[in-house]
Design goal:
With 411 residues, the chain is mainly α. The chain has a domain at 118-313. The protein has 18 helices and no strands. Helix 2 (20-46) packs antiparallel against helix 18. The two termini are 24 Å apart.
Length: 411
């Protein structure tokens, strides 16, 4: 794909138009035509979605997927030594995995830990990747998991849940714990999965950083849509809270550096993509950006979110919340009933065996959560298809712009 900066396109576009006031008018006219055409193509790309143009969107998605696959193969061929070392490591691991011996018990433990960590890292990446269009996996997966462990810990007076079926199912241990349940006990129980999820969210913030960095190094940042949007925000005269927040994030990262990135990553911040774009544009070192992001998201922010969920789902607070729902006029009694039944079923399941638990019918709230989860995942997949189709359309539009300007230059 041919990529040219806006300035280069404009210079090619107006070359040979003359000098003086007449040449200036011609340059302004052609520059205006270029901007209008570019905006028109951008609006047309925004309409390229599955529910409007399903056939074209799917075709563009598959072609973009093929391009990305070729890029992956090209990247693998460029790092042959690293790939070779990785293949050798995988072959040795496969031999250890399939050969019988006393090491198998250790191998199974390592396998389980790696799968468990990889599961949460993957969910974390899905949560933050995609410039704000990610799947909200904390609300859908990690939050409910922490809440289940919290309620089980207070009900069972222990966190020594039998493994298996934990973590897929939580059952109270038969023997009483020799320790007292505290907030820190529950935090320790869910620390690994929480950290891995936070690490995944940090990894998901890397694409905006690398895209902005690559655009700056290649000199094509002015032709990058994300950078254009950032510039539009920074030069906007609007005084609304969202615009002010975006400007504040940009200034903080630009002026403070590591500690600014750390502060932005340490609080729930839906505008953190701007921090990644800013860091990439100003060529902030990778380990400065990634290190501050990991510390902020996987350690500081993750503990804040974790403490909030644990406190919110402690016994006293859950019962207070259910009682508070009952005080809502007219509808409170009707809303209180499904929550009370759900809490009662959850406490009952904690003392059941696996077969008894599987035989229980799911409640209304569990069914509602299941349908909500399906809808969220479906929307996430649709957004990926639409985004990749629009990326391919952008490639074609840039070629059209270049070809159109080249024809006018010849004329």
């Amino acid at each position: 794909m041919v990529r040219l900066t806006r300035n280069k396109l404009r210079s090619n576009h107006v070359e040979g138009t003359g000098t003086g006031s007449q040449g200036a008018k011609e340059r302004n006219r052609r520059s205006k035509e270029y901007e209008e055409l570019k905006e028109k193509l951008k609006r047309e790309r925004s309409l390229l979605v599955l529910w409007r143009k399903p056939h074209i969107t799917l075709a563009y998605f598959l072609r973009e997927l093929f391009i990305e696959f070729k890029k992956l193969i090209h990247g693998i061929l460029q790092h042959r030594k690293t790939v070779s070392l990785l293949v050798i490591t995988l072959l040795i691991s496969a031999l250890l995995y399939y050969l019988d011996g006393p090491h198998q018990e250790f191998v199974r433990k390592v396998e389980w830990q790696l799968l468990w960590c990889g599961y949460w890292i993957g969910l974390g990446i899905l949560s933050s990747v995609g410039l704000g269009t990610g799947l909200h996996t904390f609300l859908l997966y990690l939050g409910p998991h922490i809440a289940s462990v919290t309620m089980a810990a207070w009900s069972c007076k222990s966190v020594d849940f039998p493994e298996p079926p934990y973590p897929h199912n939580i059952i109270c241990p038969e023997e009483a714990a020799s320790y007292r349940i505290t907030l820190w006990t529950i935090v320790t129980k869910v620390r690994l999965e929480s950290f891995m999820w936070g690490l995944g969210t940090a990894l998901g913030e890397l694409p905006p950083y690398f895209m902005a960095r690559a655009a700056r190094l290649s000199g094509s940042e002015e032709d990058d849509e994300e950078y254009e949007e950032l510039e539009a925000v920074l030069h906007s005269q609007k005084k609304d809270p969202l615009t002010r927040a975006k400007k504040a994030v940009h200034r903080l990262v630009e002026r403070v550096g590591f500690f600014g990135i750390l502060l932005c990553a340490s609080i729930p911040n839906p505008l953190f993509d701007l921090a990644g774009i800013t860091c990439g544009h100003f060529l902030i070192p990778f380990w400065t950006f990634f290190g501050a992001t990991v510390i902020g998201k996987a350690i500081i922010k993750m503990h804040i979110q974790k403490f909030f969920v644990i406190v919110a789902f402690s016994n006293d607070h859950v019962e207070w919340f259910i009682n508070w729902i009952g005080l809502i006029p007219y509808v409170g009694v009707y809303l209180q009933k499904p929550f009370s039944e759900y809490l009662k079923q959850q406490k009952l399941k904690l003392h059941m065996k696996g077969t008894e638990k599987d035989a229980q019918n799911t409640g209304f709230l569990q069914q509602l959560f299941g349908w909500l989860l399906i809808l969220m995942v479906a929307y996430f997949i649709l957004s990926i298809v639409n985004s990749m189709a629009q990326s391919f359309a952008k490639r074609q539009d840039e070629e059209k712009l270049h070809q159109g300007l080249s024809k006018k230059k010849k004329n």
